[in-house]
Amino acid sequence: MATKARHVERSIEDQNGQWQRVSVNLGESPLSWLYARGKLTERQFRAGEALRADWERAGLGPSVTMRWDVTPLARGRRAGPSALSPTEAQMAARERFHGAVAMAGSGLADVLWRVACAGKGIAAAEQALGWPVRSGKLVLSFALDRVAGFYRIAGQVSL
User: How many CA atoms lie within 13 A of 107 on its CB side?
Assistant: First the structure.
């Protein structure tokens, strides 16, 4: 019996800094799976999504060999408000990503990256790191709380 996908409406920021309403499948990533089952707080989930977005914007994952971005417009007197060029946006995302991972700490960064960025499940991350079963959720929650502090995400800290 196939399970029905659960979709919710979310607001996300696109690559041009514009906010868009999109439908998101909560079962798409390990973080959303944990959040949908009450294993992560909203603050932790938002922190993990912010980290993953910065990881993707920074181009730290696998990529194609050519950029398909639109060529930036002229920046003269008649140009609109200046936004970051794709290169500047990528550099800013890379700095945020490395700052967030540093805030998590070296002992927590491995599981954080594996689950939030690489999309590995908790069990796969625990096995790859040689950790005992069921330890990953606790360590991940500590890491996400620290990352939420870095991104200044309001909400209740898990205890």
Answer: 5
Determine if the pTM surpasses 0.85.
no
Rounded CA-CA distance 100/51 in Å is 7
Domain spans of the chain?
A: 26-61+85-159
Looking up tokens 């954080």 gives 112
Comparing 123 with 7, the larger pLDDT belongs to 123
**127 within 8 A of 23, measured Cβ to Cβ:** no
CA dist 105 and 131 (Å) reads: 17
Q: State pLDDT tens for residues 41-72.
A: 999 999 999 999 999 888 877 656 665 655 55
* Contacts for 80-86: CB closer than 8 Å, 24+ residues apart: 83/16, 83/17, 86/15
Give the CA angle between residues 111, 44, 133 to the nearest 5°: 40
Whole-number Å distance between alpha carbons of 45 and 19: 19
